[in-house]
Each structure stands twice: as structure tokens, then as C-alpha cells.
Amino acid sequence: MNSDKTPAIIAVIAIAAAIVVVLGRAPGRGARSLAVPAAGTPSQETEQPPSEKLVPDLGPAAYNVVLQPPLVNQRTEDNHVFVARGVARHGAIERKTFLLPRMGHMSALLLGQSARFTFSSPAGEIIVPGETKERAGLEYRDAGQGAREFSLQRPASGRWTLTIEPVGIEDASYAIDVRSEGPTEESAHLEVLLRDSDPAQTFLAKPGDVVFLRAFVAKGGHPITGARWDLRALAPTDSELVIPMYDDGRHADGRANDGISVGAIVAEGDGIYQLRAVGRLPGGAEYIRTSSIEVQSPHDLFLADTIAVNPAHPRAAEPMTLTVTAVNAGTVDTHDAVLEFYVGADKVSGQPFDLKAGESKRLAMKWTPTSANNYDVQLTINAADEPYASNFKNNTLRTVVRVR
Fold it and tell me: Angle 28-34-39 (CA atoms, 0-180°, nearest 5)?
């Protein structure tokens, strides 16, 4: 690869990834629209594709909990305030507007192979990335391959206008992500919790867990009332879920109409749910927050008891057997695991095995020591399908074998 082009390509990949995460599904995966609900009522869908599903209300029992208090005093950075994607047709100009809240620093990520972007501020300033000259507080760069970025210190708050037009004779695909950098007057939050978890801490959900999603926009340490939230999740199965959000005082959301909205979903299967929440304030400002839920079935392989040595007093040049009990204490069957046998740091042999969930199995390793000595031996389970969050410490047993 040409090293001169590598930074630009990396920048394009990073920008594209950031925009895709915030935008959600890529264009062409089903046209849809969402009627934004009033606070305290679930979202209603229209023209939903077959892969999109409205998550039903889980019922009073699921919400009969008192969640840990929301982190209203914690400021969030990187608040996304406007995202868009589409295709600008040759010979036409697309115009969009967005409301920019008060902030100290704005950044815009732009992706478009042949699109020209023009930003007009409420004060009348015109910014064309790649063309407008830099000034104090305004910086921009062209990363190549259609990716651009500009940042603006102390941008004017209020209604901005954006025009997109193709450069050349072909249509131009584009994507845009406008966000704040650093502290802002208003901070959008999307908290992911279990019934007893700390909103500041991450966790690993299990299938069947009820996971709560809490969204709000805070200002001066208090939630802004009247916010309406559209929350969607891309499930590990690649289906899109619409999760109703409530601010009615009956869904573990505190007081009714206090600006704190809560929804919930029952985790299923193994994998990651990608979350995207869009919050709209009464004044017209919009915030986009993303997060995720990682789900992992209980999965723990371990070696029980101790290593049984037979004969109990082995001799040099005579075969002996080391036996252990492997246990699958999880809920997922294990396939193609290997019991590895080490003498010191050297691997001597390995024995493949399968083990169904909840079962145990005796495994024997044969070995013929060549000389009399005290040997540090180790038996270890190596399972490629054991998830990273498993307890690996109990996969290994060690002992000293005294050979005469």
C-alpha cells in the first residue's frame, strides 16, 4: 500500500464508521418513517419493513423496580446534534436545516465522493469545507477519498442551513454528522442498566435479563422536560427493534413528565445489540446518542478436584496416567475443546473433546517419564468457543509428579 495515502484512507474509514454508527442502518435497507410520540407514550411506526419490530410493553412486573438515580450532573461530550444521509441528484440542490444548541466547539464529519457542502449560520457566515479560508476558530481538512472534516469554535446557536450539491455530472451520495466537542450547556444521555446496576458501569447481560434504557437531556443538573425519544436497536440477528420509551411515572422512570424516559428489552441469544436514540426537545433541538448491550450465555468450563496420578508412585520409563474431571457449568454445549498436557513450560500432548451443557467427563492423559525427577505438570482446557468474559482461572490444574 502506498504509505502516502495510508493516513487519508484510515481517516476515511474512521469517519465512515463514526457516521454509520450514528445513522444506524445504511440506505437501501428498507424505507421507513417514525411518528415521534408525545412524552410518556410509545413510538408508533409507519411503513415499517418486515425486519422491523415494535417491542411490546413488558408489563407492570418488569417495571416494578427502582433504578439507580440518573447521572444528570455528568456532562457528556461528543453530543451528536444533526445527522443525515442521502443522494444529491445531478442538476439539483438539496437543502436541510438543523437547530444548533449553544456549545463551545462544533465539529462536522462529511462523507461524499463528489458532493459540495455549504453551511450557513444564523449570523450569515458561509462555510464551504475545502474552499472557505481558515480563520481563528475555524479549521477544516480534506482527508481525501471524499471525506472531509471541519471544526468551529463558538458556533452561532440557532437555525443553520445546509446545502448539498453534486460536483460533476453524476449523482452524489453523502453522509453528515454534526456534533459538539467538549462540554456543552445541554448534555444528552443514554444509560443502559440492569435492575440493580450502576449507570456509570458497564455490564454483561445474560439471555433473559431485562435491560433498561434510560434517556434524557440535562441542563444545569436537571433534565429538560418534554423531550421525545425514538430508540431503536439492531439485534444480533440483524433485525431492527423499536423500543417504546415512557415518561409516565409507571415504567421505572421516576415522576411522570419529569424529562426522564425509560424503556426496556429482554436480552436474547448471544451477541451485541447496537442502540441508537434520537431525542427531540420542545424547542426543536435534536440529539442522537448511541450505545450497546452485550449479551453472553453463562459459559464456564473448568477442571474439578485434583489431578489423579496412576500409579501413585510412578517409575522412570514406565507409562503412567493423569486423570481429571472436566465440567461444563454453562448453558451452551462445547465443541472441539482440547485438554492440553504440559511438563514445565513444554506442551507434551493434547486431547480433543466435546462436552454438553451441564455435563462432566473424565479425561485421561498418558505419559512416560524418561528419567527420575520431580516434574511440575499442568493440565489446561483450551476451548476456542469459550467467551472472553468466562472464568479461565479454573481451566487449569497443576501438581508435582515424583518419579523414581
Answer: 150
Whether residues 288 and 313 fall in one domain: no
Domain limits at 241? Answer: 31-74+185-295
pLDDT confidence bin for 13, thresholds 50/70/90: very low
Last residue of a domain, one of 138, 158, 180: 180
Cα–Cα dist 341/399, whole Å: 12
Question: Where among 260, 295, 330 does a domain terminate?
Answer: 295
What CA–CA distance (Å, rounded) separates 152 from 107? 6
Report the pLDDT value the prediction gives residue 38, as an integer from 0 to 100.
Answer: 33
User: Are 99 and 163 contained in the same domain?
Assistant: yes
Location of C-alpha cell 463514526: 18
Asked whether residue 68 falls in the same domain as residue 193, the answer is: yes
Rg for the chain (alpha carbons), in Å?
29
**Residue range 166-179, pLDDT digits in tens:** 998 889 899 999 99
Has this prediction a pTM greater than 0.85?
A: no
Kindly report the CATH number assigned to the domain that includes residue 54.
2.60.40.1930
Give the separation between CA 288 and CA 265, rounded to whole angstroms: 20
Of 124 and 31, more confident:
124
Q: For residue 242, is it within any domain?
A: yes
Residues near 135 by Cβ (< 8 Å), separated by ≥ 6?
A: none
- Supply 297's cell numbers: 450465555
Q: Are 81 and 179 in contact (CB under 8 A)?
A: yes
Task: For residue 74, give the C-alpha cell.
Answer: 455528568
Q: Rounded to the nearest 5 degrees, what angle is found at the Cα of 248, between the Cα atoms of 246 and 249?
A: 110
Percent of the chain with pLDDT over 70: 86
Q: Contact, 163 vs 95, CB < 8 A? A: yes
Are 65 and 196 in the same domain?
yes
Query: According to the model, what pLDDT value does residue 11 have?
Result: 40
pLDDT in tens, 222-281: 999 999 999 999 999 889 999 999 999 999 999 999 999 999 999 998 899 999 999 999
Where residue 300 falls (left for φ over 0; alpha for ψ -120 to 50; beta otherwise) is: beta
Q: Could you tell me if 189 and 53 lie in one domain?
A: yes
- Number of structural domains (the chain) is 3
